[in-house]
Amino acid sequence: MWENKWALPTLPATANGITFTAAGDGMVHAEGTSTGWATVRTTTALPAGEYTLEHTLGSGDSLFCELKSPDGTVDLFSHSSVNRATIPAGDYQMIVSVPPSKTVDQAITPILRKLN
Description:
Layout (H helix, E strand, L loop, with lengths): L12 E3 L2 E5 L5 E6 L4 E9 L2 E9 L6 E5 L6 E3 L6 E4 L2 E9 L4 E12 L2
Antiparallel strand pairs: 1-2, 2-3, 3-10, 4-9, 5-8, 5-10, 6-7, 6-9
């Protein structure tokens, strides 16, 4: 059985008009209208390996997750085809985002799986 490697940021938090709260079971709830990119993030050390980044949504499509290396060489998105990569060991930013000018009231469950 796989383990979800995604680490939640410190919540609650507010950014650019969006309030992010913990919704239980690894979910993040976002509510409000974004006045710019609204993000919450945490940095976590990950071992080397192949990973996939996915998410489940309660509703809508304005909320997504991103896994990013500090130097930008790894940048995975949960809502695109760029959601699988083999990465070196290191510190990675785990980001939940709402794009500018979006109104949301939904929860997302980020899922980061280590495949090998």
